[in-house]
Amino acid sequence: MMDSMHIPETVSTPLVDFDAERRLLIVKGQSFPEDSFKFYEPVLKWLNGYVTSDANSQLQVEFSLTYLNTSSSKCIMLVLDTLEKAHSDGHRVQLKWLCNEENEFEQECAEEFKEDYTFPFEIALI
Amino acid sequence: MRNRHKELFAHEREILDSVEVVLRDSDCPRQQLLDSCRTLLKSYEEILRQTEKIFRISDMTSAEIKRTEAKLKALLDNSNQGFLTIGRDLRVEKEYSCECNRILGDSISGLRLDELLAQRSEDCEPDLDLRLEALFAADSQEERQALSARLPSLLTISGNRVAIEYKFIANAFEANETKLMLILTDVTEKKEAEEQIRYLSYCDKLTGLHNRAYAESRLPDLLAPGNLPLGLILCDIDGLKVANDLFGHKTGDDLIKTVAGVLRLGARKDDIIARWGGDEFLFLLSNTDATQCQRICRRIDENCQSQESFPLIVRVSSGYATIDDCRTSFDDAFVRADAMMYANKQLTGENEKKGMLTGISKQVRHNNERLANRLDGFTARASGFLERLNGQANTVVSPQNLTVLWVLNNLPSIMGTAPISVETMSRIQLTMGEPWLSDSYSCLEARWDGLDSVDGPHGEEIPLISRVFSILNGFCSIMESGRSPAEAMESIRMESGKRYDPQLVEVLLGQNTPSPV
What we know:
The complex is a heterodimer of chains A (126) and B (517). Chain A has 126 residues and is of the alpha/beta class. Chain A is built from three helices and six strands. Chain A has helices spanning 36-53, 70-88, 104-114, and strands at residues 6-7, 15-19, 24-31, 58-68, 92-99, 121-125. Chain A has a six-stranded mixed sheet, covered by helices on one side. The longest helix of chain A is centred in the middle third of the chain and has 19 residues, at 70-88. Chain A is globular, with a radius of gyration of 14 Å. Chain B has 517 residues and is of the alpha+beta class. Chain B contains 20 helices and nine strands. In chain B, the strands form two sheets. In chain B, strands 5-7-8-6-9 form a five-stranded mixed sheet, with helices on both faces. In chain B, strands 1-4-3-2 form a four-stranded antiparallel sheet. The chains are: A alpha/beta (126), B alpha+beta (517). Chain A binds chain B through residues 11-12, 34-38, 41, 67-71, 73-75, 77-78, 105, 108-109, 112-113, 115-116, and chain B through 4-5, 7-9, 49-50, 53-54, 56-58, 60-61, 63-65, 172-173.
């Protein structure tokens, strides 16, 4: 089993936390780091390593992102691309994107991200 | 900045680089070239797709940010409070709510706060810059709080009273940088309302003088050694109860206001005059001895006498006392002043009565010529009648008392007030010390034969003065209606033993004397 990953939340970066027992990766908060790639690179590396380490590994991903700057959007797409590849390789991956029920903007953003992917991608209103 | 995002497109750059290598190879096989082009095309399509998506997301995000920013700005701008921040350089930062412009003026961004307040505020202290710098230099929260408490919390800025709160706020993006936020609230109206409430709570609304609550609140200061000897003068209005009873409370209130004005004339600039009770006033006089108090009381008397009567003469009874040292309490001094005032009041009892009659007579003559003529006619006829009557044994009737009865009987016409009730007349009798008044007044209309009332007095049960008044008033009324003296006498004679006392009828008709009235 992959080591847990934990990056605490800051003003400009989200919480990234992997619960190995539940096989749940949570990304929660705002994302506008000055260097998005520098922030997300370890996450992408870890994710790549996780989805390829065990052919039958499962992964649930939960996003709760209230703000993404432009470069963070690109990084999130890289994460989703990784999940899409894992899905097409037969791994069981699913994503739940949590949106504020009263915020249409968040819901529209989530729909944009979901549009081009085939792996299980749920938009849940909270 | 540009290089920062290179890694985000690392994969795409790899494709570009590999295609570039292929293109540079002039010997590259056609198939390899085609494959590279296809790879490039596919990558280009993907980039285009992602770019479009990112543009859309970015546009939505920007719009949302702008909406949120506008809402927050609207909240701040409509909060009726000014919010601004300054940094260590004490300069106003460019984001602030529009109420700041109203309070401090336009274009305040970049200006030093201490200089801004020095220009616009009437009461800003000159070392504000040092205090603000000390605040930013403070090491601990406790020190900051202590220093903040020393900053001005209420200033007058461009004529408005402005309350100021100070809060240190951390910069969300610069961990070590703090800002000082000022929250400005225009409290001009609130202060004016508080001042009005304070004024009303300490002011007697009728006279405009201070009230008892104010005087009592000032006592601790006034009793300080620097203000001794403290003079107390207590003044009581003469005739207020009579004025209220006879003329109504509006006349009574007018008397109170006139007296208040007279007392103000007698006061010095720092003297405190308070309406202590309904008809009592108290002077509190710093650094004033007994001789000075006496002089002030005399001045008050003189000022009263110089007032126009209206219908009562304006007169107060005064008493004074001084507190010379801290061994004398206010209560003790007050009791002494009160005792002196009461003693003086007893001496002026007669004046009070005379004052009432003088005032009413003046009111009659001033306001109503017809009534004045009637009064003159009555007193003239009464004079002759009483000359004959009082010559007889046990029949002395005072002409002044008859006049009082005439005035009281005609008071509603004179003053436009309601007739005097029996209860009111009983009070007036007590006030004036005239035990005959109430019974006599109540019998003015009583018939000699008692036919007007089942249980009422008749015959000699009716006070003599009432019987005299009745016959004289009846005779005068008939004369005033235009009938001749002979006709009037005949009307009176016909009522002899019925309405009128037969013996008095004889006096009137002159049957006991050679000539009739």
